[in-house]
Specification:
binds ligand C2E, Alpha-Beta Plaits, single chain, rod-shaped, 6-stranded mixed beta sheet, binds magnesium ion, alpha/beta, 721 residues
């Protein structure tokens, strides 16, 4: 309003008259009315003033020199900016001469006839000034209104835009939204929370249209909702603090992550994210990471994890007893090779089921390897309980398993570790259980062994031996000694047996101390290869230097593992070829046990040896379980009677055995070498039995290379160069 008032204060009125007196009079009269009288002495002056003022009224003398009042008025009217300004003509022309003004009817607003009455002038002017003031006030108010309207219009637009945007967001929100209200209810238990609002995504989560949900209580919508969801809503409502919760909603079969906050009293807003797909992916990942896909049992990783927990429990609880069983099927591998992998898989599944049937709910059963299983037995009353479980598993596995018309029986070797035991890592415990299993298996299958610390010590020793054998091979620390073999009939030299030793520093390690380890670890293959090559080289040199007897041979021991090498024949041929030794000078010694383990493949290789012209002798004969009839089928040359029979031939039983072996060998066309002859009596006995050859301390101990050469020099004439 102050703006309007200031406008009112400066209301200008223009007075135009050529008579100065008249102007002064008018100004004096009107000033008292709060009007600013602007004066002009001519029409021209008046026109000049027009743009500079916003006149409320013009008082115009009609009779003026130059440009009269009418003409001036006409000009004012032609200008758009000033045409609305009211004009009162002040004239001396009487009213009766009104016709003179006809043409100006439209423009003139009123007339004042001179001499005019002051009050009439004042009241007329007052009317116009008032009108002007009102017009001005109106104009300002209009502008303000217009501004307000414009402002309103723009804020309404913004509001509706933001509303629309919110609506779009709300309805198309990827996450579900719902507003719960406890309004109008006394207490706010979950039964009282009503769904006051929800969006489309929430409808999808509920799999129900909003009409079915709006205004219903949580209890009505989800009657079986898990208590943890209710507690969550209560907690947020009670504390007023926003919170997040992730859980499974059974009724909706979904995993949800819900963020909740309190937008106002009696309200809880929930934003729900459906994380079912993510959880499923996590679960599959978990299964893949921790489950054996074939049997559905825990895998090794999960097994170790659970074992770690059991170990932790045993550290915290005083009388907590647990045990680990490591189980290996003794005779599973042939199933895969003979019945195929599908049957093999089925067998493993059945075995897994049988083991699981015996384990209790709190035990862990896992598949730890192709045909290996692990069990963690928890909360045991005593250690005997673990062994009982192991035995029951053994019995369960023995039960016939029908597969493709075959009736299969299985045995398992089991190693048991009884907790609590001092282990840092679960892997160490599992390793010991596996070690105990190895010991059980060495006993011939179907056996159970409890782990003992001595087993670990032996295993550690084996490991060091393995390492040292490796370096021994690299550093060429192996040596061959040669034990002479004599013809018993005439005491002439029949050959030598090459026997390996390990020169470990000052110590000469006998073969029995390292050959079994080399056998176990497979190192026997390169070691044996070296021994073979070295024997051939040495014998070739003898052949070159000495006139050897016709049937002279060098005997080389071949281990089972070496003999099983697929390229054995090729390797032998190469050794002979490279050293230049005549094949007939080489005699390989294989043990009776080796022959009986896999007669079919052995026979095949023996035939190959015979074709090469190499001789074969069966070592340690009598200690294995040879079926004598079997021997007939083998292309062999010699039987070596084991030292144990020779050394104790005073016992009647042994004498009978030796005699039987010799006569059997002769019947089969084989000759016989007796091992370990230590006395003349033994030699005579064997000579009487027509045993062809013998070796033993009576004749000579195994000799190092130079001493063997000396002996050759004594027994055989040197070849002349
Ligand atoms: P083996 O093949 O039965 O060799 C005979 C063993 O009897 C030799 O023991 C020999 O020294 C020993 N011996 C010979 N005469 C007598 C005797 O009158 N009294 C006694 N008490 N012992 C006698 P050695 O040299 O300790 O070899 C032991 C075993 O080591 C051998 O038994 C053989 O099975 C194995 N072996 C030795 N060298 C090699 C080799 O190069 N390769 C493989 N695979 N095994 C080898
Ligand atoms: Mg031998
Ligand atoms: Mg022997």
């Amino acid at each position: 309003m102050s703006k309007a008032e200031s406008v009112v204060e400066t209301v200008d009125v223009l007075a135009v008259d050529d008579e100065q007196v008249n102007l002064l009079l008018l100004a004096g009269l009107l000033r008292r009315q709060g009007v600013n009288v602007v004066t002009a002495r001519s029409g021209f002056d008046a026109l000049k003033l027009m743009p500079k003022h916003d006149f409320a009224l013009i008082l115009m003398d009609v009779m003026m020199p130059g440009m009269d009042g009418f003409t001036t008025a006409e000009r004012i009217r032609t200008d758009e900016a000033t045409r609305h300004i009211p004009i009162i003509f002040v004239t001396a022309i009487s009213k009766e001469q009104r016709h003179v003004f006809k043409g100006y009817e439209a423009g003139a607003v009123d007339y004042l006839i001179k001499p005019f009455e002051h009050d009439i002038l004042k009241s007329k002017v007052q009317v116009f000034v008032e009108m002007h003031r009102q017009r001005m006030a109106l104009k300002h108010a209009g502008a303000a209104l217009e501004r307000t309207v414009a402002e309103l219009r723009s804020s309404a637009l913004a509001l509706s835009e933001s509303r629309a945007r919110f609506q779009r967001l709300f309805t198309s929100m990827f996450n579900g939204f719902m507003l719960l209200s406890s309004e109008g209810t006394a207490s706010s238990t979950s039964e009282q929370w009503r769904l006051a609002e929800l969006n489309a995504a929430m409808e999808q989560i509920f799999e129900r249209p909003r009409e079915d949900l709006l205004d219903k209580t949580l209890g009505e919508v989800l009657p079986n909702i898990e208590s943890y969801w209710r507690d969550f809503v209560e907690q947020v409502a009670g504390s007023g603090k926003p919170a997040q919760f992730e859980g499974y909603m059974g009724e909706l079969r979904r995993w949800l992550r819900i963020s909740a906050y309190v937008p106002g009293p009696g309200l809880v807003a929930l934003v729900a994210e459906d994380i079912t797909a993510r959880r499923q992916a996590e679960e599959t990942l978990h299964e893949r990471t921790f489950q054996d896909p074939l049997t559905g049992l825990a895998n090794r990783a999960l097994f170790l994890n659970r074992l770690d927990q059991a170990m932790e429990r045993s550290r915290r609880r005083l009388n907590y007893q647990y045990a680990v069983i490591f189980l290996d099927l003794d005779n599973f591998k042939p199933v895969n090779s003979s019945l195929g992998y599908a049957s093999g898989d089925q067998v493993l599944r059945t075995v897994a089921e049988r083991i699981q049937d015996i384990a209790r709910g709190l035990d862990t059963v896992a598949r730890c390897g192709p045909d290996e299983f692990g069990l963690i037995l928890e909360e045991l009353k005593n250690s005997g309980e673990a062994l009982r479980v192991a035995r029951r598993i053994g019995q369960e596995l023995l039960k016939v398993l029908e597969m493709d018309g075959h009736q299969l029986h299985f045995t398992a070797s089991m190693g048991v570790v009884l907790g609590p035991a001092e282990y840092g890592q679960p892997e160490e415990l599992l390793q010991d259980a596996a070690l105990a299993m190895e010991h059980a298996r060495a006993l011939g299958g179907g056996k159970i062994r409890v782990f003992k610390w001595a087993m670990r010590k032996r295993a550690q020793y084996a490991l060091t031996v393995h390492q040292s054998l490796h370096t021994a091979l690299d550093r060429e620390e192996f040596r061959l000694h040669y034990q002479p073999i004599f013809n018993l009939a005439d005491n002439t030299l029949a050959g030598f047996e090459a026997l390996i030793r390990w020169q470990s520093g000052d110590r000469l390690v006998p073969p029995n101390d390292f050959i079994p380890h080399a056998e176990q670890t497979g190192l026997i293959v390169p070691i044996g290869a070296w021994a073979l090559m070295e024997s051939c080289r040495e014998a070739a040199r003898w052949e070159r230097d000495f006139a050897l007897p016709k049937n002279f041979t060098i005997a080389v021991n071949l281990s089972a593992r070496q003999f099983a090498q697929p390229d054995l024949l090729r390797y032998l041929a190469r050794a002979l070829d490279e050293t230049g030794l005549a094949p007939s000078r080489l005699k390989v010694e294989i043990t009776e046990t080796l022959v009986m383990q896999n007669p079919e493949s052995v026979v095949h290789k023996l035939r190959g040896l015979r074709e090469m012209g190499t001789k074969v002798s069966i070592d340690d004969f009598g200690t294995g379980y040879s079926s004598l009839a079997y021997l007939q089928r083998f292309p062999i040359n010699t039987l070596k009677v084991d030292r144990s029979f020779v050394s104790d031939m005073d016992a009647f039983e042994n004498l009978v055995i030796v005699r039987t072996i010799v006569s059997l060998a002769h019947n089969l066309g084989l000759d016989v070498v007796a091992e370990g002859i230590e006395t003349e009596r033994q030699r005579d006995f064997l000579a009487d039995l027509s045993c062809e050859c013998g070796q033993g301390y009576l004749f000579s101990r195994p000799l190092p290379q130079d001493r063997a050469l000396e002996m050759l020099g004594v027994c055989c004439p040197k070849k002349s160069d």
